[in-house]
Amino acid sequence: MMHIDAKPIDLTLTVPFRISRGVQHTSPNVIVQINNNEHIGYGEAAPDEYYGETQETVLACVALFAGNLGNDPFTLEDIMERLDKIIRLNPAAKAAVDMALYDIVGKILNIPLYKLLGLNPAHAAHTSFTLGLDTPVNMAKKALLARDYPILKVKVGTRHDIDIIKAIRDVSSAIIRVDANAGWTPKEAIKNINALAPYNIEFVEQPIAAHDLAGLKLIRDNVSIPIIADESCVTVEDIPRISGHVDGINIKLMKCGGIGHALKMIHVARAHNLLVMIGCMIESSLAITAAAHLTPLVDYADLDGHLLINDDPYTGVTVEKGKLVLPDAPGLGVKARS
Ligand code: MG
Asked: What does the buried/exposed string (b/e) look like for 214-246 if buried means 16 or more CB atoms within 10 Å of the residue's CB?
């Protein structure tokens, strides 16, 4: 019988992280450990209250899951289906279990996760580095400090968004992606996105409210910059609904419930001709590394959660001039920082 343990961990952001709907100083995450004979698998949940989860709900879920994991980590599909029957939703809690099981399977087979998935680590993506919301002057300063990263993801959703992008563009020639986190109305979005066109923006993420699919279509029909859905696209079931309304989707392990579900989303998105991005919450190198193993399959990566905290308890994927360098140790390839 596999045994599961969980412990809460509060990650501290290096600088307070502001997006259109609020500011964050710490991220209350949960580390999960699954023991299977001589192998130990590690997973991490980064619960987001926006999606109905907290540290407490994750710990309660893990208690429900204990005793229901069976004794064969290779039966991943059965195990995850069982957890879905025990409790609906709670994707971050399930993602932690799923990545710990993949970690064990990789360790038993003595191969890294990318190899288990048939992926070429040389094709791992470049990650963006995220600039939280601030005044235009301060965001330009943050862009200068981030000059080692060739791709910047810029949070917007204020009254001075064009000034923010202009200030950053004045000091940086990086690729710029913009994320409004649902902060605009459709009318504002069309006006702002068209005003951003001269600043060479790669794409705009979640311009408007998550439920407003018709609004997304209206925006897409009236701007030239690609539109990526994040809050509007949570699970695989959302993809057929959103297809035709946006150009691509942002998949996160913490929204969809883990590596297995993320793989399904990638392939379903491709079948709908959508661009695919893998993103993250504020996560340590543990969950970030799990997601990084999938990036040979995607167009864009935003896997910088571990770069935004000052007390990362793990080592795993590294970032060299923005390129994700996958560890080749068995399983996730993540180790406790000594
Ligand atoms: Mg986003």
From this structure: ebbbbbbeebebbbbbbbbbbebebbeebbebb
pLDDT in tens, the chain (338 residues): 899 999 999 999 999 999 999 999 999 999 999 999 999 999 999 999 999 999 999 999 999 999 999 999 999 999 999 999 999 999 999 999 999 999 999 999 999 999 999 999 999 999 999 999 999 999 999 999 999 999 999 999 999 999 999 999 999 999 999 999 999 999 999 999 999 999 999 999 999 999 999 999 999 999 999 999 999 999 999 999 999 999 999 999 999 999 999 999 999 999 999 999 999 999 999 999 999 999 999 999 999 999 999 999 999 999 999 999 999 999 999 999 98
Number of domains into which the chain is organized: 2
Among residues 256, 311, 244, 202, the alpha carbon closest in space to that of 45 is found at 256
- 130 CA to centre of ligand 1 in angstroms: 10
What is the 206 CA–ligand 1 centroid distance (Å)?
6
In the reported structure, the alpha carbon of residue 338 is separated from the centroid of ligand 1 by a whole-number distance in angstroms of 32
Ligand 1 centroid, distance to 205 Cα (angstroms): 6
* Catalytic positions: 155, 179, 205, 230, 252
For residues 149 and 95, state if they share a domain. Answer: no
40's tokens: 């130990």
**Same domain assignment for residues 30 and 128:** no
- Domain termination site, one of 61, 82, 110: 110
Read off the tokens for 99: 């990545």
Q: What is the domain extent for residue 332? A: 116-336
**CA 252–ligand 1 middle distance (angstroms):** 10
Kindly report whether the global pTM for this prediction surpasses the value 0.85.
yes
